[in-house]
Design goal:
The chain has about 80 residues and is mainly β. The protein has one domain (about 1-84). It has strands at about 1-5, 10-15, 20-25, 30-35, 40-45, 55-60, 65-70, 75-80, 80-84.
Length: about 80
């Protein structure tokens, strides 16, 4: 497996033995905000000021929203297929 990391140690690219690559991007807090798979599948993430994932969008049209309480416990989650 081939791997590349950024200057903060985040994995930014990796490739499997059969040549399938995956790309990753991170925000200033090292939260993974973008992923692209070798087959073109992509997803984007947004985080709140406490580094909780609050939104995710996929290139297949699906979306997900989350909310957290003051202790960072997930208290709400909804996606485009309905509530979870």
């Amino acid at each position: 497996m081939n791997e590349e990391h950024d200057d903060r140690g985040n994995l930014i690219y990796w490739e499997t033995a059969n040549g399938h690559g995956y790309w990753h991007e991170y925000d200033k807090n090292n939260n993974e905000i973008y992923i692209r798979h070798y087959d073109g599948f992509e997803h984007w993430r947004k985080f709140d000021e406490r580094n909780n994932k609050i939104y995710c969008k996929y290139n297949n049209g699906e979306e997900e929203w989350k909310e957290y309480d003051k202790n960072n416990n997930e208290i709400y989650c909804k996606n485009t297929r309905g509530y979870r």
